[in-house]
Amino acid sequence: MRAVLVREFGPTDQVEIGDIDAPLKLGTEVLVDVHAAGMNPIDYKTVIGKGAAKAVEPLLPWVPGGDVAGIVAESPYEAHDVQPGDAVYGIVNHWRTRGSYAEQAIVPSLALAPKPESLTFEEAAAVPCAALTAWDAVVRVAKARAGQRILIHAGAGGVGHFAVQFAKYFGAHVATTVSTRNVDFARSLGADEVIDYTSERFEDVLQKVDVVVDLVGNVADETGTRSLDALKHGGLYLNVPTGSWPDYASAAAERGMRASSVKVEADGSNLGIIGRLIDAGDVRVEVQRVYPLDRVHEAFGVLQGGHVRGKLVLRVR
């Protein structure tokens, strides 16, 4: 089968498109014929030797990709809920096996859900990792609700555009930071306050908030540190990008605030809920661009450049 292959860590233009053996399904895993694969920043970070490179090094040549949408080729067993021919989407455990940038992928059955009927495979592949990260931050941890004020940084990005919509759906007052070109887009997602970070400093214009969902950290303009200036005493700071602010917990504690990181959990049950929200029209998916698999180098270049609105997706078949 065709796949994107990482034979050694280095620049993303060194990845190859080649042929490898089809993966072998074990236990309650599901073999999926991949139609589309979503791209996430952790993919390129791992390819260049950062991210999860240490974990996947024993798997070289490794196939990147966590997000998958496709058709079930083999189910766990005859009477399982997931059956051959089902259209599904979910998350590949690509830190322990080959990822979704390939014609077939192995996915744990509990990490899958029915593909939303209203979405194409390309649109569906943009959902799992980003939407479940946003769900875990906004719904599971922050418990978004009416009367709560939530600030979401990078509200036009992959995780961010879902986070804004989830927080608004559950009744919170939502503020978000975006670049100039994304101001109207963020408003269309339902944000109550949109701060153009190129012309305003959020801590100067916002009332104190109860929760900050930080999708930037201190890698840009000390966004993490400044977020504490916008947070109420006793408020909750959530740091999402791994390594973006190593000292967030101690900095928050010194100021009487709570803090936690957030890691995505490949929960097919929650992904099913998200799919129903999408089909009901309560949540929408933004795909900036779809690339064929053989243009993965171009796609990686755009992904590394940052400032993607929503998600980038690879069309596999």
Automatic annotation (TrEMBL):
The lineage of its organism: Bacteria, Bacillati, Actinomycetota, Actinomycetes, Micrococcales. InterPro entries: ADH-like_N, ER, GroES-like_sf, NAD(P)-bd_dom_sf, Quin_OxRdtase/zeta-crystal_CS, YIM1/Zinc_Alcohol_DH_Fams. One of its GO terms (molecular function) is zinc ion binding. SMART domains: PKS_ER. This is NADP-dependent oxidoreductase. Residues 10-314 form the Enoyl reductase (ER) domain.
